[in-house]
Each structure stands twice: as structure tokens, then as C-alpha cells.
Amino acid sequence: MGLTAVDIFKHLPKTNCRDCGVPTCLAFAMKVAQKQASLDDCPHVTDEAKAALAGESAPPIRLVTVGAGEKKLELGQETVLFRHENTFLRPCGLAVMLEAGLDDAAVEAKLAHFKTLEFDRVGMMLGINLVAVKSAGDAERTAAVAKKASEALGLPLILMGGSAAELAPAVAAVKDTRPLIHAATAENLDEMVALAKENGCTLVVQAADPGALCELTPKAVEAGVQDLILQTAAASAGGILQDQTVIRRAALVKKERRLGYPTLVVIDDEDPLDAATKASLAIAKYAGIVVLKNDSKPVLLAAVTARLNIYTDPQKPIQIEAKLYEVGEPTDQSPVLVTTNFSLTYFTVEGDVSASKVPTWIVVVDTEGTSVLTAWASEKFSAESIAAAIKSTGVEEKVGHRSIMLPGGVAVLKAKLEDESGWSVQVGPRESSGLPTVLRSWSPN
Amino acid sequence: MALEMPTERWSGKLNTVTIGAGTRTSVVTVGGETTLPFLKFEGETPNPPVVAMEVLDVPLADIPPALAEPFGDVVNDPAAWARKCVDEFGAEMICLRFAGANPEGADKSPDECKAVLQSVLQAVGVPLIIWGCGNFEKDNNLIPVLSQAAAGERCLLGSAVQDNYKTIAACSLADGHLVIGEAPLDIQIQKQVNILLTDMGVSTENIVMYQTTGGLGYGVEYAYSIMERTRLAALSGDKMMSMPMLAVVGSECWKTKEARLSEDVAPEWGDAAVRGPIWEATTANLFLHGGADILVMWHPQAVAQVKRTISELTGEGL
Fold it and tell me: What dotted CATH number matches A5-57?
């Protein structure tokens, strides 16, 4: 979010002196806005104006880091309210909760379970990013559990407690991993800020609502901690929606600096459907970190999938690797289909093939992530490219027959593909939903 | 300095649409919003979104245990199925889909379909969505028969598409029904369909938009963003995009492997008894926040969750 020429012009001397080499101050402002000139090229601009402009040109939502090393999370610096306007840039962190008050065996069991919260989606591993260790009041116990969790999982931690004294030993125990300290409130702000500052950690600031947060964040900044994450008391779907929207909008649209930080939402619901649906709301509506109390596999699977979807760049369709895929356990007599590497196309085809319960080979052609008809129109899904994929994917070694099924929408390619590949070509249904019927009665002839 | 609330002032408002009349014992009114979904500090949501449960004219084949269990035998009898959805699961509408009319499937005749429709109209008092089989030629023979059999009931007829809308538009005018205008995830085509329908004489108050949907993990983000864009267009004053939106959630979700696979086959995904309902409820929730007003759903647990969320979002307080 750069400054506009008008924003810059307001701070210039407006003398049109040409000392910067440009005829007018407005023209100079336009060059600065387009990054073709630097503000320093104007010899008359005041230090005050420079400072004001530096402030205004800072991103409206601060980039904040949690954790260290490979698994660190970078949050913030988002630029839009709606993903279609550009894209949401930094996928939110998903955290599960670990109560430090549990006994050793229960902690071990939780950690073992957390290791399973990673899911394979066609070669992409999607999982949790953080563990929130919640103090039960015993500072040494919290430190011991935090250390164990950090070592077992290698993920950044959120350390949750009501006072600096309660969290200080835990922060010290995992200091090198830059845990997120949770949380500074109106009551404990000074001590929590001191703890965060001393250890170079990011700090969650918590208040009833966005208005109350505006009172606290300037104090934290003044005391020397700028890496902040915001949390309100909202727990209902309506409350989460409203607070998250107000914070994101105020920061982006009103340039409200006091709310220009990523956010954190804790979802306490035990019911798996309530937990999963609230997580999806928080993910879609701007949360930087979502902490889930319900850590069951189906809930996390839904949450990581919702995050993947919402943070997909609408301008760049997700592609899958162009190769030979197996659905079920196909044999040398199983049907062979061909489709494109646009992930949505592939997943739709794969879903319908799975539904048919007929083990099947799918040859995926690299169409740069475009769908069947788009790829056909741009000649990325052509007789030549399909014939090349038949060769390069090695399907010829996998099956005894030489019959491939083409999507019905590109039936026109049949004759040419037969010439190019030497395979016989069957024309499949226009819509993937027709595949189960066709596959169940498939034969190579 | 107090926080200045970042409230948007919108010039537009969604159309208010009422479904159900005649022998219906309840009616459904949706639309009328003057805000992005559920923002109480910004505007009104006078009519909460509603849940329609889907009933097919043919038994649901090949469904996973988690979906089969709550329905039991009623899936063999559309009237009993619909009654169970309303009486036990709180469906506010029934979406009766004539999948069995498809020539590539059971190819049921319009008269057979009419008998099913009549039995469902008898069995339940809630308003109906009547959806054809998707085969243009068959639907153009079928929909007029169904429309006439339900004349005066203000049903929602589905669906009119760019290449096939005239028959359904004529039926709605003749028999006093509403129309679902459908477009394939394309906001321009949606607007075109709405224009074609209004050019035929269908009033904007009798149109509901369906921009097609994808389940969680299978294109949900496309539909979500299309809905957001549509709501923004409506609030900005585009009268040809101000119709309430419908989302088909159940059938989209229950074809995904995440909803279907048993825990034996996919132990890494956990308990299948909750996984399918979670998939459907999560998808439905995303569409609520995108701006959908009518959700067509399948699983009772997902329905209950979504109804809970809707009352939480539109009730008193936050």
C-alpha cells in the first residue's frame, strides 16, 4: 500500500522551485509515488514532513514474526478486505492447545496426537503451525511442558498465562524459538511488555473490543514492543465476525495505526462442528492465528483445507504435478483417463472416479493450471500435448490395452490424438459427474 | 482518541423474496439486507438465511453410513423423507430434486414425477424448491407438468441457465412460481441470466441466484468470492445483481472423499461419523459469510449447526 501523489504533495513546499529537477511539486510527488524519484531529491522538504511520510508509507498492518528458524510464521502486511481484490498473502497460523496442568502421561499423549495433525493433499503437507501451552498457575510446570512440547514438535509456541511471573520461566526455557507471549491486558501491560522486550518476543495484546485495544497498543509501542498481535474477548460467531472486520477495515481503510497488527482468535468450543465452523469463519475473516481447543483430526483437516482454499491466490490457479495418478489400485486392464493439471479439474475428476469405485489411471497433462476447455482453446490441451503426456508419464508400461478416454468437451481432438499417439480414443462424458456410469461399463474396446 | 468505527454506507439493498403460498402452512422470506453478511454495526439483516433440505425422487444410492444412518428407510419414499426433514430436522424448505428424470438415469416420466411432487406437497407444509434433472430437453417437458401441478404454491423452480431459460420463465409466469437463475461461477453470465429472465417478464422479486458451488477443498473459494462480489455489487446499487443467493451444499460435500471415506480407509482423517457433517457445516458456514441466503443441505447435524450459527449471527447481541 504505497502513498498516492496527493498524500505526498500535501507535505511538499508547493513552491514549484524546480530544484529537484521536475517542473512542479505535484509532478515531483507523482514521481515519488511511482518510485521514480526519492523524497530526498527535494532539498526543501522538512524533517517533519519526511517523518510524517515515512509513517504514512509504512504498511497499514505490521509484519510480525512468531517463532524462529524454518517453522517461523510471518503474519500481517495484508493489503485487502476481499480476496478477489488481490489475494490474502500470509496464511494464518493454526494452533492447538496444550494444558500445562495435565500430568506427564497426558502431555505425552497430546504431543503424540499433535504429530498426527498433518495431512497430505496430493503431495502438499498441510498441518498445524503452533502449540499454545496454557499455564495452570505453576510457572515451573509450564516451563517444563513448554520445553517438552518445543523439543517434541519443533513448532513455535504460544505461552498463555495471566502474569509475567507465571510465564517468565517458560519464556526463558524456549527463548531461542521466539515464543509468542499471551497476553498483555490493561491490568498486566507493563510487566508483559517488559517480558516481551527482554526476550525479543512478539506479544499478544488482549482487550474487550477493538476500541479498548486502541487504548493499549500505543502504550506497548511506547514501552518498546512493536511486534504485537491483537485479541478481543469475542467468542461467538457474530462477535468474532464483527471484531475481525472492524480491526481489518480500520487498519486498511481508515489507516488506524493502533489496530495495524495481525489478530489472534481462540476457539474454545468442544463440539467438533461448532469448532470447525468457527475456525472457518476466523480463517475467512482475517485472523492471523486461530487457536483451537478441539484438536480432533476432522476439525483440523477442515481447518487446514479452509485455510488452503481462502489463501489461494485467485489470480493463480493451483496446479498439480503433471504425471500419472492412480485412483484405487488400478491394474494393467484398468481404464485410462486424461485431464489437465488445474487442481480443481483434477480433484473433480478424481472425486468422481473414486465415487465410481473403478480403479483407474489418470494421465495429467501440464496445461499451466487451466481447465479442460480453457486449455483446449489456448492449445495447451491438444492432441500433441496429450500424446506427449502418454509417452512421458509411462502409462504405456502400466497397462496392456491402448485405449484412453478424453473429456467429452474436447471430443474434436479424437482423430488427431489417435494419429499422434497410436492409442484408440474413447470420448467420455462432458461433465465429470458422468464418469461413474461410464467407468462401471468401461471396456478397452 | 476513541476508535472511529469503519462503517461502510451502502446505497443498495438486496431484494426481498417470499417463497410459499396457497396450501403452504409456512412461508419463507429472504433478502432485504443492507450490509455485508451479518455486520450489525453496519446495517440490517431483516430476514435470516434459511436451510432447505434436499429430497430426491429416487433413493439415494451409494451413500456413506454417516449420511445413511439419520435417514434410515425414508430415502425410498420422498414424502416420508421430506416429512422427516421438516418434523425431525427442522428444514425450513424442501428442495425436491428430480434426479430420477434424467434420461441417462432412471428416465422417469413427467407423470411419475408429478405423482412424487403431489405426495411431497401433501406431506409437508413448508415451501418447496422444485429442481429438474439438468437435461435441457427432458426438463423442458418435465418442468411445465410439475409447475402446473403446484400452481399457486409459489415454489422456487430450478433452474434457468443462459442456454435454457424460456420454458421455466414461462412456467413461473403462468403458475405463480419463482425462478432460480443459474450461472457457472461467472458473475457476468449471472447478470445476463437475470436480464434474460426479467426480459421475459419475471419480476426481480421472483428470482433467486445460484452461481454453482464447490465443497470445501473442491473450489469452495471460487463460490465464496463470487458471492462476496455479488453482495458488494448489490450493496453498491446494481439492481440486476440484488437477488438473494442460493447455495447447494449437501450434494457437493458428500461427493468429496473427505466426507465419504471411512476411518478404516483413511485413519489419518479421523472419525468419519463427524467428518462428513463437519465438511458440510464448514462449507455452509463459508457460504453464509460469503452472502448466501438459502442453503440446500443434507446431513441433520450439519443443518442443526448451521441453524444455530444463523440464529447466533442474527439474534440479539453478538
Answer: 1.10.15.40
